[in-house]
Amino acid sequence: MQKIRNIAVIAHVDHGKTTLVDGLLEQSGTFGDHEQHDERAMDSNDLEKERGITILSKNTAIRYKDHKINIIDTPGHADFGGEVERVLKMVDGVLVLVDAYEGVMPQTKFVVKKMLSMGKKPIVVINKIDKPSADPDRVVDEMFDLFADMDATDDQQDFPVIYAAARDGIAKLDMDEEGGDFQCIFETILEHIPEPEGSKDNPAQAQVFTLDYDNYVGKIGISRIFNGTIKKGDNVVLAKADGEFVKGRITKLIGFHGLNRMEIEEAEAGDIVAMAGLETIDVGDTICDPVNPVALDPMHIEEPTLTVVFSVNDSPLAGQEGKHVTSNKIKDRLDSEMNTNVAMKYEVVGEGKFKVSGRGELQITVLAENMRREGFEFGISRPEVIRKEIEGVKCEPFEHLVIDVPEDLGGTVIERLGKRKAEMKSMVPMGQGFQRIEFEIPARSLIGFRGQFLTDTKGEGVMNHSFIEYRPFSGEVESRQYGALISSENGEAVAYSIFNLQARGVMYVKPQTKVYEGMIIGEHAKSNDLTVNPIKGKQQSNVRSSGADDAIKLVPPRDMSLERALEWIEDDELLEITPENIRIRKKFLTETERKRASRK
Description:
This protein has 600 residues and is an alpha+beta fold.
């Protein structure tokens, strides 16, 4: 029987999970001397590298002494909370990471609550102790309070604490020690994390917690083996969530070591492996022995809270920049996304229109950004929250919002949030002139708030939020304060026109940008929409005048990223997304169509 430990690394976004896993791989000698690897090696896709966030949970395995330690790196963002919940079911213990300055954040609370309710054993790692503003003692106290508030058992409250600066490869059990290495983390894992239960002599039982896809072998289920031994070529039964049993055969068994995957012949209870060959495999399915099939409890997958409509691009510039523009192509791409992403759903709602539901704006924009890079061209509508009727009452999702702002700007933010039906729960000073304010707020009030918040706090504010529950509908909330500047012509924008329009608001286009009637080229300084002509050049005459050759000074246009644009738009607007551009437009392009629609 091999000696195994299974752990997950959980924390709030940006507290250093992936960097810690890097250090564990590095210091366990998993990488050979000749192997080259990137910083944050576990963040494998381009978007993860660029944004510095983990989007999909990933697993790796290291050898330490005669033990194999399976480590799962989880996302820290609330939109991917469903991933964390499933991963926790697969492990026997957890490394909870907390930033030595920021302390307990909304996502820390969310993941700790899930972990404690599942009875997992925690090891607390206070990371980033090298920050000048770090206060590890305060953060340890915060963690004790959090565990007490969440009704942790005595065993869970008796957690070991490790102080670390993961980026520099330093870890120690006592703040007064000089720098140490990750040896103390490995030893603490072996000492405090229980061995996996289950025996290799029982009938086989494994549960799938993440999916992968390979064009060659099809769907791959990454699973934890709870009982028995599984061999390549075994005939098995797949127990589905609805109680159906499907027969199948394992054609490929894949083991993990470091960043590598290798084919193996067999694996036994306690290990985490990937299996291919079962076409209908899904998250939460149990792979069991055909003679004695016993299904494990199916997994609870959190419901989506937000929807957007993806549609075929029908603007005057459609089809000029993208490779994949038809509804069939978009449908195929959404199908392949749903193959591996269980937290999202979609349905066809009209000709060339698909309603995509997810856990939050980030999850939806990550999908849109990936599609855009693959050459797709499509439109996206404004996000809407999913409302439910619970016991005859109309309900909507509420979020727990935590903001860190400079003390002199707190009042402005509180006033803004008050208009958006937020309820303030607490306010504490954080030192260094900052304060932390906590709110409970309807999820729809947060759509479009981030841009306003950054303006109000001069870019210094930090906001984080996570889903609490569904509560009764709280009435209408204030939305965008400013109108749009809408182009009335088709053509290319001209510097002379843009120069004259600058006084009317903030521009989103620069000279020589292609524009069309109904496209939004800027934000109006007042609350109404204004139709303008951005392609009108200067009239030339052969009469000289003293002001004729005044220099045209242009303010650089506001750069609208995908997230920013999606938060900015209103219900009667769309984003047109192509591999080269993100344009904002009205749903109805001509003035007469818009007037007719508003009368309805």
